[in-house]
Amino acid sequence: MTTLTAADKAVTFSYLKYLNELRASGRLSEESAEGLEVAIDLLQTTFEIDIDDKSQAERYELKEPLEEIIKKSFSERSIQQSAEAYKSEGNMKLDAGDYNGAIELYTKAIELNNSNAAFFANRAAAYMYLQDYVKAKEDCMTAVEKNPQYSRAFHRLGRICLQLNEKEDAQKYYQKAIDIDPSNEKYKADLQAIDEDPSKAGADTVPDASTEQQPGAAAGGPFGGLNIAGLLSNPNFMNMVWCASISSRCLVFDVCRLPL
Predict the structure, then answer these.
(1) Within 13 Å, how many C-alpha atoms sit on residue 98's CB side?
(2) I need a labelling partner for 147 at 20 to 30 A (CA). Which of 96, 140, 141, 181 fits?
């Protein structure tokens, strides 16, 4: 038996309200409207939801229309994709030795999404190539603030501190990287090399190719940052809708695909 969360029911409640409004809008043929009415009743039974129940409306109704939330969600996804594209271009610039160009592209990525720790860590790497260790440190500090489990950024921060003759801080940050990733032999070797040969203590300026996610980060919005687009693309959730809809032999599957 599938247990639905409040978020599941919130989406379903608003989805059913949308379908009910669509049924009454006159945009469907009489046959489709009748079939949709049967499907709505079936879905309400399946999900134990009553769209006419005021108490359920108070509990589950979203703060804004489902259509608007979906549009915003897909818009936000597009912004994230653009930010990732800037980061990828920045990585290519860095590999080609165009460090200022890389910084410009990483900055554009940050302007679109300033919560991504990897963008700051990568820009720090570009600053390191330019030997601007003050700005590199600022970016790395921002990266570890945004993602306290970002071992690569702590390791890079240690390298920056060495360049700034901040040996104690370098040791501290190398140790932090080891605490997060105790199996990383390079981190251990670099920490040991601080006393033996600081020049070998981690010449790390290569940017990360993948995006680091901050643990426990929650987006804003109704129901604690509910990812509407993600939930609607969840095969298990939508399969429940599909199975309930198909058993009524109506056209809900097609209705789901009407343009917003």
Answers:
(1) 11
(2) 96
